[in-house]
Amino acid sequence: MSKRNAKREPVKEVDSDIEDELEELDLDGDASSDDADSDVDADGDEDGDEEETGTTSDAGEDDEIEDAMLELMAAQAERAQRKAAARMPNSEGDEPGARRQPSTRTTGKSRMATAAEAVAEPDADVAVAGAKEAATVAAGEAEDADEDEEDEEGRIPDPGSDSSEDERPNRNTVGAVPLEWYKDEEHIGYDIDGRRIARTARKDKLQQLLDRNDSKKALRTIYDPYNDEEISLTKEELAMVMRIRNGQFPHLEVNPYEPYNDYFTREREVMPIVDRPEPKSRFVPSKWEEKKIVKLVRAIRKGWIKIEPRVRQDPDDPDAHQPPAYLLWADDGTAEGAGPGKSGSGLTYIPAPKPQLPAHADSYNPPAEYLPTEEEVAAWQMADAEDRPRQLPTSFPSLRAVPAYKDFIKERFERCLDLYLCPRIRRKRLDIKPEALVPQLPKPRDLQPFPTTLAVSYEGHEGPVTSIAPDPWDGQWLLSGGQDGTVRLWEVRTGRCWRTWQLGAGPVAAVAWCPNPALRVISAVVGSCVVMMASGTGPEGAEGEAEQALQAATTSGREDAAAAAGPAMGTDGSDAAVDDGAPEAGQLAVWRPRPAAMGGGLEVRLRFPVKSLSWHSRGDYFASVAPTGNTQAVVVHQLSRRVSQNPFRKNRGRVMRVAFHPSKPFFFVATQNHVRVYNLAKQALAKKLLGGGGSISCIAVHPSGDHVLVGSDDKRVAWYDMDLSTKPYKALRYHQQAPRSVSYHRSYPLFASSSDDGTVQVFHGMVYSDLLTNPLIVPVKILKGGHSVVRSEGVLDCAFHPNQPWIFTAGADAKILLYCN
């Protein structure tokens, strides 16, 4: 007993501080341990009383030692029985909560062993004290073990524990996914069967404080956010945590001061372990490394490997401190500009094709099932030499009877010739079905609505209708201009011509509405003049506001309106006495009012014939295009200030059309071969869209401003994605003649193009907000038969209704048609 106690005492001394800290936590079960200690103390007090009142004979001391050792042995036996009962199922006769008593045989043996050891002790008083202390410690350990066993039975095993009994897979199987992704969800992940793990309700700070005061178990409870579980730590785990915090080893079994085992001797030996001579390769440079260096030097000299010279960086330069950029998809170890698999000569290494290995059919005596029939032999002879097999299986009685291959020399020569003339590109023969090349597009009936049926015909013009424009607000009115010199205003639903303006003998090249909803002003191009008039539509008082705005524009910069009715006002604000109304040298345009007999309004006369007109979305600026104007081809006018200006000193090519961006300060200028996009705020070229082989004839900008439609004389319509590339995203070739007009719908995913072949092609063009998804373009309808081709001219213009999936078309047959869904 003295040896056993001597072994256990140092362990208790090492853990004394930790035990004190654990007792200060006042965890669950301390009351039971205190009760056990009180019982032991009570027994000790009784024993002490007996010692004081009893005799000092040897028989009395032996009885006390025996009682103390019996208590120690009984506590150890009871602990072992409880562990065994927890692991094995209860018998039918035993009650679940019954406690087993130690057997009399064990008790008798322990009494005899205890008595023998007590007699062997030299000092009886020391033995009695040691036995009582051991009994007290054993009783406390037994109670603590019972508490730990109860905790282990009542809690879920810890997935992060080092114990093999607690090892189990995580309940949550989301892996390394951050838990912040599930903060707005009602679950925290998925289990191994794919079912959602519902999130449990968390206690607030007040409830946690109340739990700490009510239950001592809450002090050693931690929360696992990954599995959404609460784990209660045992006393051993808390002791391990305390030892780690104190800088000690987690386990008491680890001895940091184990004796070092020196495996090698410290005696110096005369002879080495290996007595072979040093190899010559350690003293002679490697010839293979020398060849590698020679190849690298030759590659650097010939420019195959480019080494950039080091540039001395300026410490004040902010770009010098930026992290270096690397090619994400470049292959490591390859020179810049050289693809994978480059050899030292810079050519791609292509291995020689391997001949096919012989099979059963190539045997001199193949099985009967490999021999061809007469029909197969006849089919082989009739087949092409390139498509049929090189030979048919033939049976010979012996290897001696096999003749020499007649094409042996020829095939060897062709193989050597193929190796000599090996192509530098790898050609793969692809077996592709023609049906697989057709893209899988949705059916047109799934993309409705779009215009399909002729609904209304507007007739009244005496010549070809060159331009049409529905009002951009509610689509109630339609404006049209023709080569008969008239501008007509139609009521859309009834087809009635509500108003007509005669602008002159010349044809009307273009018409447009001012986008400002408060003015209701229309504009038209006749020859070299841009005419603006009040339409008379809109709410009550709109016509008066339009006339007042035109009158204010006419009299701006003048002292009174009467003076403005006299000589015309130039763009520089000076009086220009012009008899014929044409601008003088150095002037871009002349602004002057129109007589009331001609409909009133305002007239802007330029120096060159104007062919097209485009308004800004705010309704104050508009641009006119005169293709023959050279440096004055594009002129931008401001209605409120009555000012005209030339934004370009020099035009690179003949300008055909212009357009404003719907929301940003960008200006599109379409020449014959390119479309240039200018940033008006920075006054610089932002992007240049490359055209096709033909001259550009029309242009339209998507309502989002990120896509552009361009029609050209090579019978194609190109769709440009501004964020993708400067080249066309799609080239649509559906017309037999050159397209005359292209148009986007303002609210529906539709666009259309009209051509001189008398047809209008309607397309479904869906633009997605996701930048990774390309636009979906599907042709849905061909509108034909409504217009007839007159003198090689078909449909001259097309425009969509602002709110409905309807389209207006204007043709050379003096008719305007409305197609509805």
TrEMBL record:
A GO term for molecular function: ribonucleoprotein complex binding
Acidic residues bias (residue ranges): 16-69, 141-153
Origin: domain of life: Eukaryota
One GO BP annotation of this record: maturation of LSU-rRNA from tricistronic rRNA transcript (SSU-rRNA, 5.8S rRNA, LSU-rRNA)
Pfam family, one: BOP1NT
Keywords annotated in UniProt: Nucleus, Repeat, Ribosome biogenesis, rRNA processing, WD repeat
Biased composition (Low complexity): 113-140, 551-571
Name recorded for this polypeptide: Ribosome biogenesis protein BOP1 homolog
